[in-house]
Every structure is written in C-alpha cells, then in structure tokens.
C-alpha cells in the first residue's frame, strides 16, 4: 500500500505548485480539526497532502503512525511541502490519562520524529512549521483571559506532552533558523466533532431523544440529558475560525512566536444546555452524572487572543449560538447516532 501512495505523491510533486498556492502537508488531517482545515486550504487553492493513522477514501491521504521518522521523511521527500501544519496526536485528555506512555510516544516522540525528518529533508529551515499545542499548558489557577505570558503548569498527561513538544519545536526552529508558529487554542467546537466532547455529546443525546420520541420508544417524561458539571465555564471558538489562523500561519502571515486562539469569553455549560432546549422540540430533563466530570479541573478558563489580533487581524467571528446550532444540525443529519 505504501508503494502506491508514494508513487502518487512523487507524481504530484513533480507538477509543482500552481501560481499563488502553496504545497502544505497536514499531519492528522483525517481528524475533526484536520477535515475543516483541509477544506479551507483547498478552497484557497493550496496543494495539500495529509497524514492519517488509518486508510481514508481521500487519495490525498497517506498513512503515518507516530512515531515513525522514516515514514515521515518519505512523505516529505515525496511531496516537497513548503509548510507543515502539525495536528496529529493524542488529543483527548481522558485518553492520555488512561495511557500516558502512549500519549508521550505520539505527542512527544512523534513530534521529535517529525522534526528530525524535517531537518533531514530541509536543514536550512525553508519549510514553515505550524504547531498546534493547547491552552491546557497554562496554570488554570492563574485566572481568566490568560495571555501568552501567563504561568505554565500543565495539570494532566495530555497537557504535559503538549508542553514538552513545544520545547522541541522551539529548540529545532532556533537551531535551523526555521519560521515556527505555535498555537495554543482554547476549546473549539463545530460540525463533525466526536461525542466524547461535551457540546457534541449534549447535541447527540438531544438528537437521540428526538428520534426516540418520534419512534414512540421513549416518552417525554423519560427523556433525560446526562451531563457533568454545568457550572464549568469555557472559552469556545468555532473550529472554522480556528483553522483560519492555521492557514494564515502556513502562508507566512504571522511572525514566528506563540499565539493564543480564543474568544475571550467564558461560557458556562448550562448556557449550552439552555440553548439546546430552545433549539429542540423535544423537552428533556437533566441528570448530572459524576463520571462525566473531571476531578480537579478548573471551574473557569478563558484566553486573551490580543496578540494574534494585533499581528494579523484574526479574531473569533462565528457566534457560539450558531456553532451549537450547526453541531445539533450535523447530528440530525447523521444516519446513526
């Protein structure tokens, strides 16, 4: 399988980029954020390839399971990218907590393998590196509207691996003179997000309740939405705003450095539930389940994205109400929920 993929990549690279476009490699492109990012990049006319840990129907995808430095080098040499956007990794906190060694292998060793492969491919630092970290590297006790100078204190395995990866990126970028942009996005939602995340989980449950009532398998009195702590307040952006920043960075529209991506507003999960009540004809009760809450998590987190706004004008533009509405509509279009 790899031989065929490499042949297509070499053939693709031989044509060269179209005028006004870039060759951009996206790692982890088959995930939630990656799909939205690729859609944007292609609409802008860029030549894209992406990596995935599994087979995809998209012929532009190639399998890469981190850490695999040799495989990463093969892809770089075949496609000859001008920018790399690194999304791939273990990105779900409970998953990282359940297997922290695997999280370190993928998020830290995997990033190191990619950086080493990029160094072998482009030791002079011509290829731009866009690195996606997380706002969870900050000390959640530091207050609201955290800026890039806020103290760092990762409180879980996922955040620890992401901060370690940031250190590697800065080290390699400094040694090679490579333009490297590190993003620390706060919570982002949108159509296609898996149900493991709170807003998507709530929307999926509402759709299941709607269908159960329509099919007569559940009464209105039996309709229950299971939630965690609804007093938790988070800074939500729409994923389609988030990926605009990644695209801008890949195109060199940002000076190298570290940037928050945030709306600046902390919204309680109770607001999301109230909005879903308004958007659904299905009445439901709410049941708090302790297992849906994370012990030790901060009650309120929000970010200050003033640095990137000053640098290139980026800001969160899609209203949270519209984002939640589209998440709900996406689940309604799904055949199986």
Q: What can you see in these coordinates?
A:
The chain is built from 11 helices and 13 strands. It is of the alpha/beta class and 337 residues long. The chain has 2 domains: 2-189 and 236-264 and 302-318, Rossmann fold, CATH 3.40.50.720; 198-232 and 266-301 and 324-333, UDP-galactose 4-epimerase, domain 1. The strands form 4 sheets. It has a 7-stranded parallel β-sheet with strand order 3-2-1-4-5-6-11, with helices on both faces. A two-stranded parallel sheet has the order 7-10. Helix 1 packs parallel to helix 3. The protein is globular, with a radius of gyration of 21 Å. The protein starts with a helix and ends with a helix. The relative contact order is 0.13. Residues 1-19 have low confidence and may be disordered.
């Amino acid at each position: 399988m790899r031989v065929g993929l490499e042949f297509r990549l070499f053939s693709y690279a031989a044509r060269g980029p179209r005028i006004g476009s870039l060759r951009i490699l996206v790692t982890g492109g088959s995930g939630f954020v990656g799909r939205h990012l690729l859609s944007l990049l292609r609409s802008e006319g860029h030549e894209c390839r992406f990596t995935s840990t599994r087979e995809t129907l998209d012929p532009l995808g190639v399998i890469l399971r981190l850490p695999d430095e040799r495989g990463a080098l093969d892809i770089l040499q075949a496609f000859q990218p001008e920018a790399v956007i690194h999304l791939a990794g273990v990105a779900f906190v409970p998953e990282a907590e359940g297997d922290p060694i695997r999280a370190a292998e993928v998020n830290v060793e995997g990033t190191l393998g990619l950086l080493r492969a990029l160094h072998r491919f482009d030791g002079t630092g011509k290829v731009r590196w866009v690195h996606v970290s997380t706002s969870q590297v900050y000390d959640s006790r530091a207050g609201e509207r955290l800026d890039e100078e806020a103290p760092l204190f990762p409180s879980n395995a996922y955040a620890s691996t992401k901060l370690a990866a940031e250190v590697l990126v800065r080290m390699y970028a400094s040694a090679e003179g490579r333009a490297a942009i590190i993003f620390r996005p706060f919570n982002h939602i949108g159509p296609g997000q898996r149900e493991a995340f709170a807003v998507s989980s709530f929307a999926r449950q509402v759709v299941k309740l709607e269908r159960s009532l329509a099919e007569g398998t559940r009464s209105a009195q039996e309709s229950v939405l299971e939630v965690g702590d609804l007093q938790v307040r988070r800074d939500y952006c729409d994923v389609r705003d988030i990926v605009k920043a990644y695209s801008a960075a890949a195109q060199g529209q940002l000076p190298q450095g570290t940037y928050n991506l945030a709306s600046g507003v902390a919204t309680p999960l109770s607001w999301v539930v109230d909005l879903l009540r308004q958007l659904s004809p299905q009445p439901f009760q709410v049941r708090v389940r302790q297992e849906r809450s994370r012990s030790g998590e901060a009650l309120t987190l929000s970010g200050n994205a003033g640095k990137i706004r000053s640098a290139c004008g980026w800001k969160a533009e899609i209203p949270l109400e519209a984002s939640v509405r589209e998440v709900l509509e996406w689940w309604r279009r799904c055949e199986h929920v």
